[in-house]
Design goal:
The complex is a heterodimer. Chain A has helices at 4-24, 26-49, 52-65, 69-84, 88-118, 120-135, 138-149, 153-164, 166-177, 181-189, 194-205, 207-227, 236-245, 249-277. By secondary structure, chain A is mostly helical. Chain A has a single domain, classed as MetI-like (MetI-like fold, Orthogonal Bundle). In chain A, helix 2 (26-49) packs across helix 5 (88-118) and helix 8 (153-164) runs antiparallel to helix 12. The model of chain A has no long low-confidence stretch (mean pLDDT 92). Chain B folds into 2 domains: 52-71 and 95-270, Rossmann fold (3-Layer(aba) Sandwich), CATH 3.40.50.300; 271-383, no CATH class. In chain B, a hairpin with a 2-residue loop joins strand 9 (234-239) and strand 10. The longest helix of chain B has 19 residues, at 364-382. Chain B is globular, with a radius of gyration of 24 Å. Chain A binds chain B through residues 180, 182-183, 185-193, 196, 200-201, 204-205, 207, 279-280, and chain B through 72, 75, 77, 101-102, 104-106, 108-110, 112-114, 116-120, 129-130, 132-134, 177, 181, 187.
Chain lengths: 281, 383
């Protein structure tokens, strides 16, 4: 039996649907572009135009303020390495992409996580969607992003947002569901409303899980932003792709190391921040 | 108050989990099926209770008997399947969301088994939690919470986190959190069972001390018969969601309604419930002394005497009784003597108690246990 015709029909109908969307909802995609660029552009300008020394010093002072001298030294060395390797500007662009994507993903993901935890019905709807998003290979996300937003920074960030969002949603919902029933009962028994229970009891007690989601979201954004260089997102990924096409192994490894350094720094700093502000500690 | 209205009235209360509760309820009510038959788990089966204002009402039962469910129905943490619960004249079973919050914050306080303190809040913020969600201003709630902490003996611990406190202190915070709301009713869900035995006894005394001035209506859930006997003005024993016996501790100890209750109360130290009024001889040997003033009673005595109220426990006087040092005269509130406590009268009361379990050979063991306990109580009395 030949199913090629059927497979063709599926592909065609998806094409038709996306064409329909882009034709009739252009305004929506335009405004999404505007918002994303409105965050990313100024951030990138600020970070690339500011003197490297200033940024390195700021991060190091931040490390000291967070109460970790080792963190300050680590970030100083790491950033200095990126600067010395002459990768400062693309690294800052990458960072701006990561921050933009992560902020948007968290701004959408955490509230969705809360809704899922509070409503069984929403949870039933969201579970398969989240499964779908999490098993989707990251490359596939680039296709619709390019279709709706063309090539460049915006589709890169949009694809990154979709890639990085499921985990904070899951971890937020998980943290809220794991709050001991007796804590919720205590709140209710003293006359707290549902919202009061959520904000005064559940969210503070779910803090650790939510922050684990934040950390993972930022880390996944970094890995996706590198992949998104294939559709012109820019930053360190560009360096890597360029070195692949020119067979410059050494340069590629340098850029790769810069990504690793960024990843380590982002991970340590977000973790330390969440430790520092943890209300349950 | 001279005419005491019951604080809590529970009428024909049912709670059924799973299955089709409505169908199961109809069948239960019509007697078409027992609670164990068919689908659905019957947690509460036709509970009827009247809880008097200012009394401690103990609900006792094994785990799974429905006692915690019953407690949670009173403030609707659990919605009953059918029935009515009236707290201070207000039917809580029909209250809407807003009304329910109002009832919870103004009428019914609660203390939890595992304390349920919020770990991210300081002690004083935990105590002030109910006031906060009720919209009381920061200054007033700090003040009131401070007073409540003082009441439970924890002033100065305001800004500590619950994790810095011992178990007993945590439950004191839990108690303060309930007391600060100034509610007439207090629900206590096995509040002391997670504590060490020594601390538990201390907290029981503390509760009785507080209750002697606060006069709240307390519904107290426990699985510990001795705790029930010590604290309760009345005790209800639950089995599989049904009340199998309800009454004063002494009634339950001396005349258990079923083998289940008998097994349950066997562990109770009788001297914790045996009061002077129950073990006295109602008359003093020269019969004509009835209704005579106390001077008439005492002038025949060759020794000193002690006056006891009918409610006083006799445990502290056992040693004196054994040595026959002083006479024990039971005197009513109005000053009229009503009887005397003698070694013989105590023995008679004990015999009545042990005859309940003494007829069959297999009951020999608990009888022995009873006497050792009596000895222990006597020893305690001498210390």
């Amino acid at each position: 039996m030949d199913f090629s015709e059927f497979a063709g029909t599926v592909a065609t109908s998806i094409d038709d649907f996306t064409t329909y969307l882009s034709a009739h909802f252009g305004l929506v995609f335009d405004s999404i572009s505007t918002v994303i660029l409105g965050i990313q552009q100024p951030l990138a300008t600020l970070m690339t135009s500011a003197p490297a020394l200033l940024i390195i010093t700021t991060v190091m002072v931040g490390g000291v303020l967070l109460g970790r001298l080792s963190l300050a030294i680590l970030s100083g060395c790491g950033l200095a390495f990126i600067f010395v390797m002459n990768l400062w500007a693309p690294a800052m662009v990458t960072l701006s992409l990561v921050l933009t994507a992560a902020v948007v993903a968290l701004a959408i993901g955490i509230p969705i996580g809360i809704l899922i935890a509070e409503s069984k019905r929403l949870n039933a709807v969201a579970e398969p969607i989240l499964d779908f998003m999490q098993t989707m290979p990251p490359f596939v996300l680039l296709v619709p992003a390019v279709f709706f937003f063309g090539v460049g920074t915006v589709p890169g960030i949009v694809a990154t947002i979709f890639f990085a969002m499921p985990l904070p949603i899951r971890l937020t919902a998980h943290g809220l569901k794991m709050v001991e029933p007796e804590m919720v009962e205590a709140g209710e028994a003293f006359g707290a409303s549902r919202l009061a229970v959520l904000f005064l009891i559940k969210l503070p007690l779910a803090f650790r899980s939510i922050m684990a989601g934040v950390n993972q979201c930022v880390m996944m954004s970094l890995s996706m932003v590198i992949i998104a260089s294939m559709i012109g997102a820019g930053g360190l990924g560009d360096e890597i792709i360029r070195s692949i096409s020119r067979l410059q192994v050494g340069r590629g490894v340098e850029a790769g190391l810069a990504v690793v350094v960024l990843a380590i720094l982002i991970d340590r700093i977000t973790r330390r921040i969440s430790e520092k502000v943890d209300p349950t500690a | 108050m001279s005419t005491r209205k019951p604080a809590i009235e529970i009428k024909a209360l049912y709670k059924i989990y799973g299955g089709n509760p409505k169908v199961k309820l109809d069948r239960l009510r019509s007697g078409a099926c027992g609670p164990d038959k068919g689908s659905g788990f019957v947690a509460l089966n036709n509970i009827n209770m009247t809880i008097e204002t200012g009394k401690i009402f103990v609900v006792m039962g094994l785990s799974g008997s429905g006692k915690s469910t019953l407690l949670r129905c009173i403030n609707r943490l659990i919605d009953p399947t059918a029935g009515q619960i009236v707290v201070n004249g207000q039917d809580v079973t029909i209250a809407g969301k807003k009304e329910l919050r109002q009832i919870r914050s103004s009428m019914i306080g609660m203390v939890f088994q595992h304390f349920a303190l919020l770990p991210h809040m300081s002690v004083i913020d935990n105590v002030a939690f109910g006031l906060r969600v009720a919209g009381v201003g920061r200054k007033e709630r700090r003040e009131r919470a401070g007073k409540a902490l003082e009441l439970v003996g924890l002033s100065g611990w305001d800004n500590r986190k619950p994790s810095n406190l011992s178990g007993g202190m945590r439950q004191r915070v839990g108690l303060a959190r309930a007391l600060v709301m100034d509610t007439p009713v207090l629900l206590m869900d096995e509040p002391f069972s997670a504590l060490d035995p020594l601390i538990r006894e201390e907290m029981q005394q503390e509760l009785l001390r507080l209750q002697s001035t606060l006069n709240k209506t307390i519904v107290f859930v426990t699985h510990d018969p001795n705790e029930a006997a010590m604290i309760g003005d009345r005790i209800a024993i639950l089995l599989k969601g049904e009340v199998v016996q309800e009454g004063q501790p002494i009634d339950i100890v001396l005349s258990p309604a079923s083998d289940y209750v008998r097994d349950f109360v066997r562990g109770i130290d009788v001297f914790k419930v045996l009061s002077a009024g129950q073990v006295m001889d109602a008359v003093c040997p020269p019969m004509e002394l009835a209704n005579k003033p106390i001077s008439e009673w005492t002038k025949h005595l060759s020794k000193d005497f002690v006056k006891l109220a009918p409610d006083d426990l006799i445990a502290p006087y056992l040693d004196e009784l054994a040595k026959e040092q002083r006479a024990l005269i039971v005197v009513q509130n109005d000053g009229t003597p009503v009887g005397t406590v003698t070694p013989k009268s105590v023995l008679r009361a004990l015999a009545a108690h042990s005859s309940l379990s003494g007829s069959t050979p297999k009951m020999e063991k608990p009888k022995a246990a009873d006497t050792t306990r009596a000895n222990a109580a006597a020893e305690r009395a001498t210390q």
